[in-house]
Specification:
The structure holds 3 protein chains of 3 kinds. Chain A is 18% helix and 35% strand. By secondary structure, chain A is of the alpha+beta class. Chain A starts with a strand and ends in a 5-residue tail after the last helix. In chain B, helix 9 crosses helix 11. In chain B, strands 8, 9, 12, 13, 14, 15 and 28 form a 7-stranded mixed sheet that branches. The N and C termini of chain B lie far apart (96 Å). Chain B is elongated, with a radius of gyration of 38 Å. Chain C has 2 domains: 89 residues, Probable tRNA modification gtpase trme, domain 1 (Gyrase A, domain 2, 2-Layer Sandwich); 81 residues, Heterotetrameric sarcosine oxidase (Alpha-Beta Plaits). The longest helix of chain C is centred in the C-terminal third of the chain and has 15 residues. In chain C, 51% of the residues are buried. Classes of the chains: A alpha+beta, B alpha+beta, C alpha+beta. At the A-C interface, strand 2 of A face strand 9 of C.
Chain lengths: 95, 982, 189
């Protein structure tokens, strides 16, 4: 596999470490009244789509960026690669 | 019999005679020969025995599709079984033996299997499982095992070396036949970076084996000119002897390059290189493979593919027979007759299944249109054929052509499905190709020369343009279109004798029919039941026939019956090549601490912890048992001072205005209020509330911390922290960098540690208990100005420090510490003594932080702050992780003090049976405590701290032990912790 | 107080070897300091670099060279670069801080790496056995730098000349790394 890194261009998948669903960025609020349930859902409930999937990859043997990779689980086609930091900011995590 | 079948012409170098051995018989060939062509030239017909029935077999083809001519190559440790003679390049001194026979090849004792063939039809192997039940293990299995398999391995380590590598290109061209060469020329001339790979040692493909002309020159000459041009270009990499064996995601291809297989001696260089090729586009020009026709006894030596017969004659000047008959269902087969006749070989007959006007044939050949071959004779080589009308014709070679199958294999590696083309009676690549791949030439069903050249030329032009390369003048190579009409014909129904489909796995028409009878309707099931196409040749010459017979059985068309698709590798890849350099100690890198050389000189025993080698203990003269060394080291730390290399602990430099807040979020306990110059123990949880890692973190300034992690988790923790930093809290000003390699760090532990360090630290540094109390840290200088870091932390429970200097001084530092320690009887201690000391103190380590245990279990539940948002804090409060009867880390001492304890034992209440239901926990760490004089253990047991003094069983069913142990405090030694604060 | 000063050792004790036209040299006497950009502090860091070094902030994957001194800045990851300069002592951070002040967070990395310089016409042929990065001129020009992995070892590779590459890998595995490089050289010659 080749991941087209937004800063470095195409790089071999062997440089990356996979984590999982990009929804791990959306960590719940610990003070939410139902925080245990929220965290439970956050940690254990995942979609398992046959098709497009947004997932987290770490460029461990590279620039140490966490990436959000949009990959089709049926074809392995990668349609989008973003810096996870940017995605996290867009989702308001820097507030 | 010296080259009795050598004829004129060919592309061999007659000035270079090469001697070789086949079954200890010395024979000669020429440079440019393959082992197969040299055997053909020497009139050798019988080259091996078949897999199941031990039928005599000869050379069937002239390429990598060969099912029969598998030999053992080389001798001794270099011996390699199942090598295809058709692709083994001849070299002087080559040594080959036939395989799969007992006794001489001509008189194979296991040929008796052929008489038992009625009992060994499709699925016989599975049937042996069924009945009688007791027979399998005692009778069937040993017999099958001893007679199965083809060649033999040497049983010794492979003495060859292998390598891997990475290549990049704009356009990968797979196959250097006419289509591939036309494509490569056009793409390369446009300026694209081209890799042209071909499995042969002489590129050119069928141009080398046919009598075609291109641009009015002989095909082979045109190919050499094209190769010469490509070789001279900087943007072209020509890989000969290289098989592109797999198409992977995103334009990545696997290729195996053979480097020294054609040499007598590898000269210490890699035998093969496994390339990973990253391409932007790929053009598959893999050509086509001729297929056979099934008829009675169609597996005798001398029955060969028609295209291969003329390949031997045209390219290698070797004729497989002196009286050759041709059996074909297509125009192409006739070329064999005319080509061989041109070399002066007698053609006895041409039999064509089609009832039509005959094509031009050599004079003297009997022509039979609309006829078939029903049977053959000749035990060790064909002597005659019988036609449908009963006529018998003598011949010593029968050239068979059932048409050509495009080599679609690589198009299927991403689950692409080939499509049927009626006009070719063959499958061609479907639309769902691997990303970036296009297919041209015979592989794409363009089975004539001019069509192949045009497709290659055109596709390369559009690929190059698509990649943004300039259009340059590049003329289309000119050639005539040869006759290539074909009428599907698969097997001769009139044949009563067995008709082979898959020669390598001995699958006959009858087997396919039988499997159909027994209910196997899907082609995938057919394959597995009959083993059709499952041998080392993957059925390259057989699959299509099998499918056609299956279609006939079911009364469906071939496309309705379906096709099996292919997966990598296209042809076999040695395990050695896949392993590459990763053998023995090169399997993974070794990390050495800066004191390694010194420790080696002290005679230390080392232990692998991850990639690190750490000193385990340092034996002294007279110590014969490891325990003596470890006991001494542990006691010496308690009584005087010891030094241990702790460089391997992960160190992470954490800086930023929000560094403290960040640590507060990743550690379960609080860090925001840690004062500058202080160190704190920290426990990290996973988000699910389970303990992940621990270590100490020191605050060097308002904005700077140095975190330590365990040796084993350093990389994973760094990754996790980066996740927290980038994905969870991108608004924090915090930065991480690993500093593990930057610092050589030594634990100096024991009552004399301060005295020792006073001799090391510079005079202006006050390390008195008042100035530098327990958990203090500081940036200091040592040995006259060398920068260092000092931490007053203790894993041993003694007065202890860890001192770090830049790694370049690590070697000098251990020597300086040991020298300074001489007067205090300082010793070096290894990881074993370190373990003993921490178990005596009840400190948790990797065995306790095992991924199943919570802070509560570890007795650190109160450390988890509920007043802040920390990774894992919310879920650590789940009810089931906080049960009253939850596990607790406690100590265990054997009731009989002489008993040894074993980690992994499970605890069971006295009187209960040692069963899963009665399991109450397990022993995690054990050691012999030299200070206490008996074994001690740490472990988890339900309600541990309420059960102090209770005696339970420590049951170790694996080792057959059951020891009574007393539950005690995990703090075996100095429970109040007074010694470390002095 | 100690009577002996501590003697420094380089990771490979100054390895240097010629293999035909290919030369492998362990580079010593170089300081490496990581410079992290404070959140929202990029402009100030840029200004400081211009003032002190007349150098640009490098993009990730490339390096910049000071036009007034020998410092090279290696853009390794977002918000973090390495400053590389000749310095034989153990006070590299102080040198950087003197120039860039408090515009960055500094961490000494001088002792963390073994540095090998490979030069010669065959250098790319040797490296293609262990390096997955495309090292062709168009893809990896002089000045390019990136972190990757070679034979399981994290490696920073920088192209300093047409036929010259500088490789940095973890100091603790320096011997394994040298072995990987030497094997590649042996295997091509």
């Amino acid at each position: 596999m080749i991941i087209n890194h937004p800063l470095l261009g195409p790089r071999d998948a062997s440089e990356f470490v996979y984590l999982g669903d990009a929804s791990l960025i959306d960590r719940p609020d610990w003070q939410h009244e139902n925080s245990q349930q929220e965290f439970h859902n956050y940690l254990y409930l995942r979609d398992n789509p046959a098709g497009e999937h947004r997932e987290l990859w770490f460029h461990e043997q590279g620039d140490r960026s966490w990436l959000v990779v949009t990959r089709n689980t049926l074809t392995h086609e990668i349609s989008k690669v973003e810096l996870a930091r940017d995605v996290a900011k867009e989702r308001g995590r820097d507030k | 019999m010296s080259q009795s079948h050598r004829i004129d012409g060919g592309q061999i170098d007659r000035s270079k005679t090469l001697s070789f051995f086949f079954n200890d018989q010395r024979l000669d060939g020429y440079a440019g020969d393959t082992l197969a062509s040299a055997l053909v030239a020497n009139g050798v017909k019988l080259v091996g025995r078949s897999f199941k029935y031990h039928r005599p077999r000869g050379i069937f083809s002239a390429g990598s599709e060969e099912p029969n001519a598998l030999v053992q190559l080389r001798r001794g440790t270099f011996q390699e079984p199942n090598t295809r003679a058709t692709v083994a390049e001849l070299f002087d001194g080559l040594y080959a033996t036939s395989q799969n026979h007992r006794g001489p090849l001509k008189h194979d004792l296991l040929a008796i299997n052929d008489f038992f063939s009625p009992f060994m039809s499709a699925g016989f192997y599975y049937k042996t499982f069924m009945w009688p039940k007791a027979f399998w293990e005692k009778i069937y299995e040993p017999i099958i095992r001893s007679s199965a398999g083809l060649g033999r391995l040497s049983g010794k380590a492979d003495p060859d070396i292998y390598d891997k590598g990475f290549l990049h290109c704009d356009v990968l061209i797979i196959g250097a036949g006419p289509a591939g060469l036309a494509a490569a020329l056009r793409a390369a001339r446009s300026g694209a970076r081209v890799i042209l790979a071909d499995e042969d040692f002489q590129p050119g493909g069928r141009l080398n084996t046919e009598t075609y002309s291109v641009d009015d020159t002989a095909g082979a000459d045109w190919a050499s000119t094209a190769i010469a041009e490509l070789s001279s270009m900087d943007n072209v990499r020509l890989l000969t002897r290289t098989t592109v064996y797999g198409a992977y995601d995103h334009g990545v291809y696997g290729a195996l390059e053979s480097r020294t297989d054609h040499l007598r001696d590898s000269g210490g260089k890699p035998r093969q290189i496994l390339w990973r090729i990253c391409s932007r586009r790929a053009i598959l020009c893999a050509g086509s493979t001729e297929r056979s026709i099934a008829f009675g006894n169609n597996d005798r030596p001398g029955i060969m593919m028609a295209g291969s017969v003329r390949a031997y004659a045209n390219r290698w000047a070797a004729t497989p027979g002196k009286r050759v008959a041709v059996f074909t269902n297509n125009d192409d087969g006739w070329r064999t007759a005319t080509d061989l006749a041109a070399h002066g070989v007698a053609i006895s007959a041409v039999i064509d299944t089609r009832d039509k006007q005959p094509l031009a044939a050599p004079s003297g050949a009997m022509i039979a249109m609309g006829s078939t071959v029903t049977d053959t004779k000749g035990r060790h080589g064909i002597r005659s054929i019988t036609l449908a009308n009963g006529q018998t014709i003598d011949c010593d070679c029968l050239a068979v052509s059932g048409g050509w199958n495009p080599n679609v294999h690589l198009t299927c590696h991403q689950r692409g499905r080939p499509q049927w083309r009626d006009d070719l009676a063959a499958f061609v690549p479907g639309g769902d190709l691997p990303t970036g791949m296009s297919v041209v030439g015979a592989a794409n069903g363009a089975l004539t020369l001019s069509a192949a050249l045009k497709q290659g030329h055109d596709e390369a032009g559009s690929v190059a343009a698509g990649l943004g390369f300039k259009k340059t003048k590049s003329a289309l190579p000119k050639a005539e279109d040869e006759a290539a009409e074909v009428a599907a014909f698969w097997h001769v129904g009139q044949s009563n004798a067995r008709a082979w489909i898959d020669q390598q796995n001995d699958v006959t028409v009858k087997d396919v029919k039988l499997s159909h009878q027994e209910g196997y309707r899907s082609v995938e099931h057919l394959k597995r039941y009959t083993t059709l196409g499952m041998a080392t040749d993957q059925g390259k010459t057989a699959n299509m026939l099998g499918l056609a017979v299956m279609a006939e059985c079911t009364g469906r068309s071939i496309p309705e019956t379906g096709t099996t698709i292919f997966r990598p590798p296209y042809s076999p890849v040695p395990i050695g090549a896949l392993a590459g350099r990763a053998r023995g100690k090169d399997f993974r890198p070794t990390r050495l601490s800066p004191s390694h050389e010194w420790a080696e000189n002290q005679g230390a025993t080392f232990v692998e912890t991850g990639q690190w080698l750490r000193a385990q203990w340092f034996p002294k003269p007279g110590e014969t048992n490891w325990r003596q060394s470890v006991d001494r080291e542990a006691l010496q730390v308690r009584s005087a001072v010891g030094i241990c290399d702790v460089t391997t602990l992960g160190k992470i430099d954490v800086q930023g205005r929000d560094a403290a807040e960040f640590l507060n979020k990743v550690y379960a306990n609080g860090f925001a209020k840690l004062a500058v110059g202080k160190t704190r123990y920290g426990l990290m949880l996973r988000e699910d509330g389970i303990a992940a890692d621990d270590g100490t973190t020191a605050r060097l300034s308002e904005t700077r911390f140095v975190m330590t992690t365990t040796t084993a988790n350093a990389v994973a923790i760094f990754r996790h922290l980066e996740f927290c930093r980038q994905c969870l809290w991108p608004g924090l000003d915090v930065h991480l960098i690993s500093a593990t390699e930057q610092w050589a760090q030594y634990a100096v532990a024991g009552p004399k540690s301060r005295d020792l360090l006073r001799k090391i630290v510079d005079a202006d540094i006050d390390i008195s208990n008042e100035a530098f109390p327990f958990m203090a840290c500081g940036e200091i200088t040592v040995c006259g100005g060398t920068p260092a870091r000092l931490f007053r932390i203790s894993f041993s429970g003694e007065l202890a420090y860890e001192i770090a200097v830049p790694t370049r001084y690590g070697d000098a530092m251990i020597k300086a510490l040991m020298k300074a320690g001489e007067e205090f009887d300082a010793i070096a201690y290894g990881t074993e003594a370190l373990g003993v000391l921490r178990i005596e103190k009840g400190h948790a380590a990797g065995n306790e932080l095992c991924g199943q245990t919570t802070a509560c279990d570890l007795g650190m539940g109160r450390m988890v702050s509920k007043k802040k948002d920390t990774i894992g804090s919310t879920l650590s409060e789940r009810v089931d992780l906080n049960r009253e009867d939850g596990l607790t880390l406690v100590g265990f001492a054997p009731v009989n003090r002489d008993d040894d304890l074993k980690a992994g034992a499970h605890f069971v209440t006295k009187g209960n049976a040692a069963t899963t239901q009665n399991d109450e926990g397990w022993m995690t760490s054990v050691a012999y405590s030299p200070s206490l004089g008996h074994s001690i253990g740490l472990g988890f047991i339900k309600r541990g701290h309420e059960r102090m003094g209770e005696i339970v069983q420590a049951a170790d069913l694996l080792r057959g032990m059951n020891t009574d142990v007393e539950i005690v405090s995990p703090h075996f030694f100095d429970p109040e912790g007074e010694r470390l604060r002095v | 107080m100690s009577d002996a000063t501590l003697k420094a050792r380089s990771p490979l004790d100054g390895y240097r070897q010629q293999f035909g036209t290919l030369e492998i040299v362990e580079l010593n006497g170089l300081a490496l300091v990581s410079v992290a950009t404070p959140l929202d502090g990029e402009e100030e860091l840029k200004k400081a670099m211009t003032t002190a070094h007349k150098a640009e902030l490098p993009a990730v994957g490339s390096s910049t060279q000071s036009s007034v001194d020998d410092t090279r800045f290696l853009g390794l990851q977002p918000g973090q670069m390495f400053a590389m300069f000749a310095h034989d002592g153990d006070r590299a951070v102080e040198f950087v801080a003197k120039k860039l002040g408090e515009t960055g967070y500094y961490t000494d990395q001088s002792d963390s790496w073994v540095i090998l310089q490979l030069s010669g016409a065959d250098v790319r042929t040797a490296l293609e056995r262990i390096c997955a990065i495309d090292l062709q001129d168009s893809a990896f020009p002089v000045g390019a730098v990136t972190r990757t992995v070679m034979e399981h070892l994290g490696t920073i590779i920088m192209r300093t000349g047409h036929d010259t590459f500088v490789l940095l890998s973890a100091r603790s595995s320096a011997k394994s790394f040298l072995h990987a490089v030497l094997t590649s050289v042996n295997n091509i010659q």
